[in-house]
Specification:
six-stranded mixed beta sheet, five-stranded antiparallel beta sheet, 207 residues, 2 helices, alpha+beta, binds copper (II) ion, 12% helix, Immunoglobulin-like
């Protein structure tokens, strides 16, 4: 089967689940609250999965995900974000994207606000300890232990996956999106956390 028809098929399946937010909150929370339940102490708590496709920016703010640069993040490209609350109090975030430009590096982070018509609408990066100086480019605050960095390298098919594990939980409604950027995330003083233009954004109601 030629690759394009396969891709079309997959996109069709993804569109079908797009907008369906699988918030698996119930089971995990119940298990945590019930201290008498011995199984509650074992294994991570799967919490939230968002799977959707990038829509043109004209669909903002109603679309689950939008692209601001359809050359580098095409309309119809699929994106999935999974959040897992770890038993040790930390959080694991997984990002998967398809149909990116092959062999290309993208910066990606969790941001504080939902996606909008403008790339800047997603606000700054989520920080566990918030830098009193904004925009935050101080590596003491803008680093992958204090923010959730999800930089991606697309493989030869344009698929990419990244993971961030941090030892804290997001504040309630404090983290609302994942933004893809044009470059790998910088780490040096005065530029830490920057990754060039914002290419695309996916709404994720992190908990
Ligand atoms: Cu960012």
């Amino acid at each position: 089967m030629p690759r394009h028809s396969l891709t079309a098929l997959n996109r069709g399946a993804l569109v079908a689940v797009a907008g369906v937010l699988a918030v698996a909150a119930g089971a995990g929370l119940t298990a945590t609250a019930d201290a008498a339940e011995p199984r509650a102490t074992k294994g991570p708590l799967p919490r939230l999965v968002v799977g959707t496709v990038f829509a043109p920016v004209s669909a903002a703010p109603y679309a689950q995900a939008v692209t601001y640069d359809s050359e580098l993040v095409p309309v119809g490209g699929s994106v999935q974000v999974k959040e897992t609350l770890r038993r040790d109090g930390g959080t694991r975030i997984e990002l998967r994207v398809r149909d990116l430009v092959a062999h290309r590096v993208y910066g990606a982070h969790v941001h504080t606000k939902p996606c909008g018509k403008l790339p800047a609408d997603a606000g700054p990066h989520y920080q566990d300890r918030v830098d009193p100086t904004q925009p935050s480019v101080n590596p003491e605050y803008a680093n992958p232990d204090n923010e959730a960095w999800l930089d991606l390298t697309a493989d030869r098919h344009g698929s990419a996956r990244s993971l961030a594990t941090v030892d804290w939980r997001f504040r309630e409604r404090g983290a609302r999106s994942v933004v893809l950027h044009e470059m790998a995330t910088a780490t040096h003083e005065g530029h830490a956390g920057t990754a060039g233009a914002r290419l695309a954004c996916v709404n994720v109601p992190f908990v």
